Structure formats: C-alpha cells, structure tokens
Amino acid sequence: xxxxxxxxxxxxxxxxxxxxxxxxxxxxxPSQGSGSQGTQEAQEEKKEKTLTEYSTVYTSEIDSVNYLKxxxxxxxxxxxxxxxxxxxxxxxxxxxxxxxxxxxxSNDELTYTFHLRDDVKWYxxxxxxxxxxxxxxxxxxxxxxxxPDHASSNSKTVYDVIKNAKEFYEGDITDFSQVGVKAxxxxxxxxxxxxxxxxxxxxxxxxxxxxxxxxxxxxxGEMFGLxxxxxxYCGAYLxxxxxxxxxxxxxxxxxYWNYDVISIGRLNYKYNSEANxxxxxxxxxxEINDFLLPGSILDEWMEDPEKKEMIRPNNxxxxxxxxxxxxxxxxDETYKPEDWKIAVNNENFRQSIFHGFDREAAIxxxxxxxxxxxLLNTFTRRNLVQADGVDYTMxxxxxxxxxxxxxDPDKALEYKEKAMAELEGQVTFPIQILVPFSTAKVDxxxxxxxxxxxxxxxxxxxxxxxxxxxxxxxxxxKQVRTPGAYSMxxxxxGPDFADPLGMMNPVHTGSLDGKYMRVSMAKDLQDExxxxxxxxxxxxxxxxxxxLKKRYELFADAECMLLDKAILIPFYxxxxxYRASYLDPFSGYTSQMGRNAAIKLKGAVIMDxxxxxxxxxxxxxxxxxxxxxxxxx
Length: 633
What we know:
Helices cover 32% and strands 18% of the residues. It is α+β, with helices and mostly antiparallel strands. It has a domain at 325-575: Dipeptide-binding Protein, domain 3, CATH 3.10.105. The strands form eight sheets. It has a four-stranded mixed β-sheet. Strands 4-5-9-8 form a four-stranded antiparallel β-sheet, covered by helices on one side.
C-alpha cells in the first residue's frame, strides 16, 4: 500500500517552502519502510532478518519513562527509541515524515494540518498490538502537559507556541476545546499557533509532542511512565527490561511500521557506578561495544598503535557552555556582593575578564589533542541553523567572533587599568569573585582551577581574587544558580528547537525562571528608562517570521550585544573527546539539531570492527559529500 508524503527539498529551506504553499506537495513515492503489512511471508521474512546488538554501560539513571513530563537528556534518548512523532530527521539531518504521511500549512502560517498514516499501532512492552495511533492521541498528550498539577517540564515548550495553551495552563480558559490543537477525524490533527512560528514544525519532533493513548493515560493515572508496563509504545523499540541502577534493555519491534530501517535488534544498557574507570576493560573483553574514553587513559590509547585504531572522535552535543556574570548577586557578605555588583556593571571590568581568560588552556585539561574543536567563540553553537548556505554564527557581527579569539592579554591589561581608575573609591580591591561549581564531573573542577590560576596570574591578585566553591551535584541549580549565589559561573544550555530563539532562554527574562544571569539588570544594556535594549532586540528578531535569513541576522545582531558588551564569555561545546565503538558514527537518524545531538539508534549500524582514527576523517568527508548531494535534490 503506497502512502503519499510531503517532499521536502532540504532541511534548511523546509519551513520556507511550506510557508509558500497553500497546500502540500505530494509524491507517488512511498516513504522508506512504508509499513505495508504485505503478505504473511513478507512479515515472517522481516522477523527473521539478521540483527546485531548494541551494548554499553552508564552511570546516570533516567528519572522517568514519562516522555510527557521529563526533559532528562538520557531519558530523551530513550524516548526517541520507543516513540515516534509526526516528523523526524534522517541520518543527514533532513526532515522527513514519520507518523504524519503529509501536511499542509495555511496561507497565514498559523494552522498546520497533519494527515496520519493509518498503519501505526500501539503496543504493550511484550509487543502485543493494542490499538492504532489516532489524531486524538496527539491532543491527549498536549492536554496532559497543560495541566499544571502534572508539573510537566515541557509545559512552557507547548504553551509558548500553541494558541490559548498558556491561557488554559494558567486557568484563564477552562474549556480545552479553545486550545489550538484538535483532532478533525481519526487521521487528521490540526494545530493553531499564536503567531507564525518558523521552527514549529521541527519542534514537533520533540518528545513532548509525541502521542499518548488517552484512555490508557487515564487508566494509569499517577503511575504513567513509572515503569516499562505503564506506557504504550509506537516506536522502533520496546522497553523489555527496566531495572533502575541495574539495566535497561530495548528490543526491536518486528511489527514496527518502519522496520526496514532497523539493523540493531537489541540495545543493552548496564548500570555501573564505575563505568568511567572500567569501560576500557569491558570493551577490550568484548562485554560492551561502545564507550567514551575518560581523559585518564586517552594518552595510553593514542600512543598504542593497535588501540588507536579502535577509537575515533566523539560527536559534539547540542549543549553550549559559557561563563555567565551575575548582575544580581545574592551570597554571604564575606565575599562582598555589593562590590561585585558595582564591578560587574562596569564594562571595562567585564572586558578585562572577557579578554583575559585563556579558554583554550582550560579546555586542554579535557581535550589535549584538538581543543579548538570544542572551543566556542559565540554564545550560540555552530550548525544550529543556516540560511542561503550561511551558518548563523557567520552572520553579521558574529563572523568576527567566530573567526577570531577573545583571548588577548594586552587588551585585558588595558581594560584592567581603565576599570581600576573608574572604580576607585567605589569598591575595595581586589574584587572578590565567587565561582561555585558542581562536583558531578572531575573535569569541571580542573577547568575552574585553570581559570582561577590563569586569570589571577595575568590580571593580578591586586585586582581580582577568584574564590572557587565546590558543591554536590544534587540540588546545585536550586541552591546556587537560581537564587544567584555566585559572582560568575560556568553554565550550559542546549536549545529545545532549531532556532536562535531556542538558545536565548537563559538570557531572556521572559524565559524559564528568568534567573540564569539577570541580564536585564545589566546597566550597559538598558535604555534611559531602565528597559532592556537586548530584550527589545530579541523581540524584534522574533517578530520576523517570513524571511528566515533576515530573522537569523536580527538574532545575530542581538547576540552581538552580549559579546560586544562582554555580558558573558562563550566557552565550549560539550561532547567531543574520543570513543571506542563498533557503532558507525555516520549512521542512525538524527534530531532537529543534526549530528550535534546524541546519535539515535534507529537506523544505526553496528560495524564488524571499530572505526579508528585513520578511517574516521575519510568517512566524515564522504558523509559530508553525500549529505551535500542529498540536500541538492
């Protein structure tokens, strides 16, 4: 049975194309793995095909299997394996249909209508089909998330875009039928937005927009998502074993509608609190076939010709890290928060630290072989979005930062002298700089120690006194970042959707709790009335919804305000390092963030031997060539 599908020219221009269409373009070519049941013989052949296994160890446990509630990164990786959404992204990062067979966008760009495949089933954890995924299932999920009693971490993601969703969440509207999501019939779901939102269609790939069977959800109540039995599955894999702090096992569902793309039949995750230290031994013994090398053994493997051919660069992730200045300090008088507040509002003081911090030296503690790969010169990471073949980080004034290096000792000392002259009589030198950090990772402490020693040596202890303060990971955000108990601190953020706006949440007062850095309180970014010039620039950029290139350029202008005024210091992109793995790093479906996000195991391939350093560069070059050719079509 053939299914029609929307033909998308490329990920970069997908939204622009859709917005130009009153209806949708269709193709007679069925999507990959059309899900047709076919003959009984064909079904038996599917079930008998040879599949491989993936095995690894982990140290961080997921907090829930409730994909409507959780935003835990490890949990999200699991959700992508066991659930499907309306759309997804192939191994090249191109947006393709998933549960949606095709869709249309209204002329005013406010209404999206999706027509569903009719062969996507719900299964229990044993693989028994228990129903068909219907349009109402997408409505049921949104309604659950918008109930504040459920305390979903995804509520803002939903109510920021869907019409009347925030009003319903806050109780101003009690009739859910007024919220902009409706099941027109069993195979048609319609979304209505507050305003044209260029990134909306990509956002639908995020787990909180996945379907849920409303009757099952009601039946489970508070038990939903607590274990493998309290959810239903519509994705490529079934969670057949879920024992927290013991193991997670996922097995491919042979009746999955897109089973043809599956080559790994079983995913084995074993918990081990010492995984970082024993992973190498488990790998060489053949007990696991994938692990990330800790820095403590990297030199040993790099210098061993045989071991070197078992490791390759690890993908960078979607997380950007930066040093954030706190413009509203709230900590013990011992560290003189009032002095800090005066100093941090002096641009020359901030510029002295901005240009005085040798970020590469700090990154060398965790990536001694290729630190520039992790180094980030802009607040927004590379390869988030592009327009007309130009990456966002190369637009407008951002290009100079992307191609340059903020570290400049001479500039830093010049700014120091100016700051000391301007602050004389207002503060007591040295300025106490409280820098707390979480002990969750050893490398964080190493980076902070390098930063302390390097900045104090360059700028002098007559000027600054950096005080490092370690905290346990449990409760760190609530006890330190949210109340503002720091002067400056390493922070990280990964956008939930592929648009510069998604990266701006930590520095936008109207986003999250508005308490990441209190950027709106930075006097250098306020007009004569005390209003934030930066937030006004963000609002201007977000108002441009038709011309993506112009939209991105306006966001680039806003981001340049942060960098030009040294409101924060870009640092590095997480991930990277080196991995010993039988997993083909260029296989597997991606996310809307491309390969920078963790690789999905749907469509991934296990190789006969690990890909070593000598093979990786050629394989990456071929992948990029194939991707470029794909995007031209």
